[in-house]
Amino acid sequence: MSKVLAIDDDSIIRTLMSNSLTKAGYEVITAVDGESGLQKVIQEKPDLVVTDFQMPGMSGLDVITEIQRIQPGLPVILLTAHGDVALTIKSIQVGAYDFIEKPLQMQELLEVIRNGLEISYQSQTLTETISPEIRKAIEDNLLVGKTPVMREIFKNVGRVSLNKVNVLITGETGTGKELIARLIHYSGITRDHPLVVVNCSALHEDILENELFGYNMGAFPTAVSDKKGKFEQAGEGTIFLDDISELSDTMQTRLLRVIQELEFEKPGGDAPIPLKARIIAATNKDLEAMVKNGKFREELYYRLKVFTIAMPPLKNRKDDIEELVKHLMQKLNRKLNKKVLKIGNGVLDLLHSHDWPGNVRELENTLMQAMIMTRSDVLEKEHIVLLNRNTPVEPEQFELKSIADIEKVHIKKVLDKLKWNKVEASRVLDITRPTLNAKIAKYGLKHN
To answer: In the record, which positions carry 4-aspartylphosphate (predicted)?
Structure first.
């Protein structure tokens, strides 16, 4: 019979776990705080520990850290009512087997315990080969989301950030693939080293080759000085290859060789340069289908997808919309020098009703436009302009709109709506009449 230690300062939670786990066939021991829990780890030698995060004295993270010191490999599940991205990643980094948010769903807890015990028993039969150094937690949340799929992604970020395996991030345009790459980089062992971003679709093959590998002076007639390539610039950090599916066959071959040999040659150089950086690649295409169609090298595909993270479209995680809106409003307030602090009635219902073909990027652009339009500290429903669901527009078009473009369109709409009554338009736009005249001139607006 497996022995489970439950640590929680809430007597109701302890009783609930004890009764449910006993009924499921486990021997259960309990502790009221971290200090007494660690004593029972030493005395009772449990097979698995479930601990609360926020307790008097030692926190759950402190308990996990100490357990990993005195009994490495003992699976620990962290419970919390205060979950966020940073805490999820930190718990995985310090050694938690899994992370569960309260209120407890006993079926979920029992499943996690069962899986944790199974993996623990398998681990005990193997020889330990690695002992990764745990880095400090990230200080900023670069992404938000509490839906199960996003919680699992954040756990995986915590796991993969502690080593340098290659990572392939897949997902539609606008789902946040680059943000995940940055989160992996800044969460773990690479955070003190450079993050270098390369857009594989933005450069011609010859230019991309020079950007990736660099060159020494004299390597070709126009090489009048030495140039460090992106692989060299990344050092022991991360090189993020966005739109990896757009690489030519020649560049795919060269990249495969770099990954295989863990070194690269710099044109005009005397010796190969070791590759010390981790490679994270991203794509919005189906690489597996491209492999089958002969458009992407199979061996490169498998070399890149050592660890895969699939970003879900926003329409599949609509429960995250409210949290995303609050997060993006804070970000946009800083960017736009605004103070839009409240969400008006009906706004969230309207946003939930949309399918978001451009995903989080479309949501951000929609909020940006609405926040520019608002005259108060309230994000109003009347300022939310959504893409017509029946109009096929590529999500990439959202990337091309500047704040000036949005402002120009909005000012023209207001003027036309008010039949070019500039006094009323100035009031609606919350700007002075001279400012309105200046913007009319700047954007070349004319009365129809």
So the answer is: 52
